Amino acid sequence: MSWIGHLCRHIAQGLQWISTAAHRGGHFAGHFVPLFLSPGQLNAQHRAYYERWYAGRVSIDGIAAEDCRLEPWERAFVEQYGSPQSRWLVLGCGWGREALPIAQAGMTVIGVDLNRKALVAAQRCADQVRASAVFHQADFFKLPYAAASFDVALLTDAMYSAIAGRASRHAWLQEVRRVVSPGGMIALSFIPDRYARTFLRRVSRALIMMLRGLPGTNVQCELGDEYTSGHFFHLFQDPDELRSELAAIGARLHKLDWRQGVVWLSFAANQPDVLADNPGRPVS
């Protein structure tokens, strides 16, 4: 690695510390962290963030099925596209907030997450109420399921915005496309940019665009990339940005609710059936 690369790495570490330690100054510094870390590094930090988050939630062991409720938009999606025995994939299912109510409504559900502690709590709740839901520990980018295994897929809690880099979001969507039946519905939750264009924010954005492309920087950094308290997220600038991103991989949009940060989409055809090498691990 060149001295410039080492310098950029140290700058990123310093900005991460500032972003975590301070609020206002940290928010400003957080604009620049994605400029010096690759999408792979940002996605790895996102996973580490949730490992720490779940580790600190001792109360997760007390989660019960009645604690799991759908948001209004999720309920509307289930009512419109759910049918008895339809197969649902819930990504980033955590302790089963969405998966359990969907299973109790008569659907067959598989929930996927990386955090084992959350999955164990989810499976315990499902078993207690005899819901048709199972939970697997697996990588979102290498889902251990055959092509067209599901009729519907769901990603909530703004997690689409937590995937760093447009190329990574495309890769993830292609994997979801593979495991969902052609024409099957996919619901994504994202973060729209509603923040005021303050002077400080305009300055930081101008600097990012000026610095992007220099040796050691992340050339995939986009306007709207943020880093706060160890957590990356991408703020979509306007509906056209999201439409363009999804259209680029052949998605058909059925609904885009900018205010709620929700999009419903489908694909006409799936990719060839190539199973991931790392099968998901059921929890017990």
Q: Overview of this structure, please?
A:
With about 280 residues, this protein is α/β, with parallel strands linked by helices. A hairpin with a 2-residue loop joins β7 (about 225-230) and β8 (about 230-235). The protein is built from 10 helices and 11 strands. Residues about 10-25 and about 270-280 have low confidence and may be disordered. About 40% of the residues lie in helices and about 20% in strands. It has 2 domains: about 5-55 and about 195-235, no CATH class; about 65-190 and about 240-280, Vaccinia Virus protein VP39 (Rossmann fold, 3-Layer(aba) Sandwich). The longest helix has 19 residues, at about 5-20. α1 packs antiparallel against α2. The chain has an 8-stranded mixed sheet, with helices on both faces. A 3-stranded mixed sheet has the order 6-8-7.
Write the layout of secondary structure elements.
Blueprint: H1 3-21, H2 24-30, H3 33-36, H4 39-55, H5 72-81, E1 87-91, H6 99-104, E2 108-113, H7 116-129, E3 133-137, E4 150-155, H8 166-179, E5 180-189, E6 191-192, H9 199-211, E7 225-228, E8 231-236, H10 239-247, E9 252-257, E10 262-266, E11 281-282
Parallel strand pairs: 1-2, 1-4, 2-3, 4-5, 6-8
Antiparallel strand pairs: 3-11, 5-10, 7-8, 9-10
Helix pairs in contact: 1-2
The H/E string reads HHHHHEHEHEEHEEHEEHEEE
Distance between the termini: 44 Å
Helix content: 25-40%
Broad CATH class of the largest domain: Alpha Beta
The CATH architecture of the largest domain: 3-Layer(aba) Sandwich
Strand content: 15-25%
What does the largest sheet look like? 8 strands, mixed
Number of helices: 10
